[in-house]
Amino acid sequence: MNNDCCRAYGWSSSAPSHTADYLMPEILRIMKSLGCRRVIDLGSGNGALCGKLKAAGCDVVGVEYDAQGVEIASRCYSDISFYQLDVTADPACLLEKETHFEAAVSTEVVEHLFSPHRLVEYAKSVVRPDGYFVISTPYHGYLKNIALSVLNVWDQHFTALWHGGHIKFWSRKTLTQLLEKNGFKVILFKGIGRVPLFWKSMILVAVPVVAEMSDE
Fold this sequence. Notes:
seven-stranded mixed sheet; 7 strands; globular
């Protein structure tokens, strides 16, 4: 049994998730600014973001553990390749069929994983040395955490009764540490949704740290 994510996230339709309105436009802007065309979506869900990336001119591939999500995505976006894999799988299995990518993107996935470093390791394995990793997750910072306490909405925010819900809660500092400990250097932070410091989510863009060759 996979210990990094639940067997079924709950995908039942092709409708974009509730985060799509503020996340997708920003992800598309970032991809355009980076000039990335060959993109892999790690945790592609029902394929909604892959569909948007494809429409924007990207050569996109989706990877998703939930079989129902892959089924919906493959049916709705038949011109995109989707693979039912999870972050504990050997990336070589994917790279037997696909070449390395200019960018990996993962939106609102890392908060669901028991072993989030596996996601970052997977991204490092499938992007080119000069590529990018674009990752988003709900934002947690000092002022927002205080507000959640004052408003007494932690029970709602923790989503404890949601099967497959959030089990990790990230700040800019901790997500940066996760990336840096697993072979990336963060080059961009952006908070999105709501007013500054109370953002709904954050996006970090990171580049692989390539080991320098010794002269000896």
